[in-house]
Amino acid sequence: MKDVIVLAIETSCDETSVAIIKNGKEVLANIVSSQIDIHKKFGGVVPEVASRHHVENITVVLDEALKTAQITLDDIDCIAVTQGPGLIGSLLVGINAAKAFSYALKKPLIGVHHIAGHIYANHLVSDMKFPLMALVVSGGHTELVYMKDHYDFEIIGSTRDDAVGEAYDKVARVIGLPYPGGPQIDKLAQIGEDTYHLPRVMLEQDNFDFSFSGLKTYVINLVHNAEQRNETINKENLAKSFQEAVIDILVGKTFKAIEQYPVKQLLVAGGVAANSGLRKRLNEVIQKYPDIELVIPPLKFCTDNAAMIGVAGYFSYLKGVSDDLSLNGSASLDLK
């Protein structure tokens, strides 16, 4: 079978990334230009600023990816690009670049769902074995996705309000930690103790849905009440207490799901998959399920990157799926 080379572009938020993937498995290049330092002073991503920096970075990152992979544009078989969800201005920068390459090179254009990309990042670690369950944990998504085959997504549980990464950032902000908040809380949690005993919202309910708004609000009120009483909050202990509550909810719901949906693999996807506490707990609990393989991507493939888009695009290419030049971005694209 002929090798398939995918040129992938990811610009859904504040990372400009271009990757070149061979046969859905081999990463020839995965260049990521992050804007974290730019947005840190605002306490979060500013969409207009993000879009402008994507415009400035996209060709630079593309050239570096081609140089790293040591290939030319003529070697490319298809172009994969994040279609959504994400910041619409940011998405359109990547999509328009992908459409230009597709038109100029006369190569297929493939729009990829951002969350499908996060799930398919796991294929870089271990071949996907069906049926499987994917725990998606990111700044915008918290979902349990059941898959019987490639591109067969059944969302069996999702968040009813805040995504887990969003809750991390908001809690971090209220206790005075810099953006992005998730890694900061994870770092403090490693030296703190669970002394605040926060509620485990929805953990006992008989469904696979998540809710983090109540937990977030509980922490915000706890901090504000302490400030009014001139009491000092122990940031390390509060970070540990918050993280333990989140992990209990995520892990509890996930393993409840895999007991009802027989699976061969449990995949973890999204930026929060980089959380050390979550990775540790999942590795501990999976020992009770010797027939299920736990797959978690390395840290560089947990956060937004084009390699994951390239892998997902590769499997679309094998199915003969492609888009025309009317492809448009969608800020709230459904996973299907």
Q: Would you give an account of this structure?
A:
Helix 9 links the parallel strand 9 (265-269) and strand 10 (293-295). The mean pLDDT is 95. Strands 3-2-1-4-5 form a five-stranded mixed beta sheet, with helices on both faces. It has a five-stranded mixed beta sheet with strand order 8-7-6-9-10, with helices on both faces. It is globular and about 65 Å long. The protein folds into two domains: 5-120 and 301-318, 2-Layer Sandwich (Nucleotidyltransferase, domain 5), CATH 3.30.420; 129-296, Nucleotidyltransferase, domain 5 (2-Layer Sandwich), CATH 3.30.420.40. The two termini are 28 Å apart. The chain is built from ten helices and ten strands. It has 336 residues and is α/β, with parallel strands linked by helices. The chain has helices at 36-40, 47-69, 88-105, 114-120, 164-174, 181-189, 213-228, 235-260, 276-285, 306-318, and strands spanning 5-10, 15-22, 26-34, 78-84, 109-113, 132-137, 142-147, 153-158, 265-269, 293-295. Helix 5 (164-174) runs parallel beside helix 7.
